Amino acid sequence: MPQSNPAVAAHSKSIKIVVVGAGSVGVTTAYALLLSGLAAEIVLIDIDKNRALGEVIDMSHAAHFAQARVRVGEYEDCAGATAVVVTAGVNQKPGQTRLDLIKTNYKVFKSIIPQIAANAPDTILLIATNPVDVLTHAAHRLSGFPVERVIGSGTAMDTTRFRHELGKHFGVNPRNVHAVIIGEHGDSQLPVWSLASIAGMRLKDYASQKGIEYSQDAMDECAKRTRDAAYEIIKKKGKTNYGVASVLVNILKPIITNGDALVTVSRVGTYGGVEDVALSMPCKLNRNGAHQDVPLLLNETEREALRRSAESIREVLDQLEQD
Ligand SMILES: NC(=O)c1ccc[n+]([C@@H]2O[C@H](COP(=O)([O-])OP(=O)(O)OC[C@H]3O[C@@H](n4cnc5c(N)ncnc54)[C@H](O)[C@@H]3O)[C@@H](O)[C@H]2O)c1
């Protein structure tokens, strides 16, 4: 239903958001955004114009209830957009290597990103296409935008899943679990156990106060289910769309409302001593983009895992840059 918060309503009047890629992730994001009431205008761009048009006609009937305009656009329509969400690209095909997928989506980005940047030099790019860290780095290079204005959805999705898993385990609302997944949106991601808390208490202390057993094995299972969630969903339904769409809207909200919210997103920087890579750390999000507010106080094991995660992304970037 439309957002009833007057502060949000005041912001939304002039807000245009463009979604590039009208596939599963793109249209579910556009639909979630439509129902959020955060934007006055949503523009869908896709190489398959017919597909985008069909989605827009269908969604415009929902827009009737949501007081926002949805339409098909061209890259010129990015002008004046508060943010452009990029979901265009392909998913991994059977027999295709991860590097093949990267090369294909990098080609897609080479055709898309310069067009967005030329038409909307002041916008914020929000990247969802996978591999999201590598493509956030590519979007930064291809746009020439400052690092703050090129944001990858990164481990915002994994952090949401992680809090969901821990909330289920401890029997509390996931919103009351403070825990993050940082690093790569992929296999080298890491849970920051040393800083995880519920009601201001470390997980171990919370469990002991509650009179339940704390086991690191059970915690590791929560982290494993988080890391493998996408594989599990894709095995069953062939794609993921609802979780990521909600996460993308949750990233757009503080950008639109200048909310200074802390969200774990991907951004180009130096991590664990590895320079010029994009990966996720908690960032402060507002109308100027993603800002690395304060460094996380990681323990030595976590610092080492973060370095390994950064190195694995750097290796892929090196392979890509050789071509
Ligand atoms: N970051 C995350 O957490 C997350 C979660 C789920 C999916 N994804 C990724 O999002 C991407 C999209 O997934 P999907 O399920 O929506 O795929 P999809 O195949 O349903 O949609 C992709 C769309 O991109 C369009 N497209 C392809 N090339 C284009 C171009 N050059 N210009 C404009 N449009 C173009 C296609 O026509 C299609 O409509 C994939 O890379 C997927 O891996 C990311």
UniProtKB/TrEMBL annotation:
One of its GO terms (biological process) is lactate metabolic process. Residues 155-320 form the Lactate/malate dehydrogenase C-terminal domain. Its EC number is 1.1.1.27. GO terms for molecular function: L-lactate dehydrogenase (NAD+) activity. It catalyses: (S)-lactate + NAD(+) = pyruvate + NADH + H(+). Pathway: Fermentation; pyruvate fermentation to lactate; (S)-lactate from pyruvate: step 1/1. It is an enzyme of class 1 (oxidoreductase). The keyword Protease does not apply. The keyword Oxidoreductase applies. GO terms for cellular component: cytoplasm. Residues 15-152 form the Lactate/malate dehydrogenase N-terminal domain. It holds the Pfam family Ldh_1_C. NAD(+) binds at G21, A22, G23, S24, V25, G26, D46, N105. The active site is at H185 (proton acceptor). SUPFAM superfamilies: LDH C-terminal domain-like (SSF56327), NAD(P)-binding Rossmann-fold domains (SSF51735). Keywords: NAD, Oxidoreductase. Belongs to the LDH/MDH superfamily. LDH family. This is L-lactate dehydrogenase.
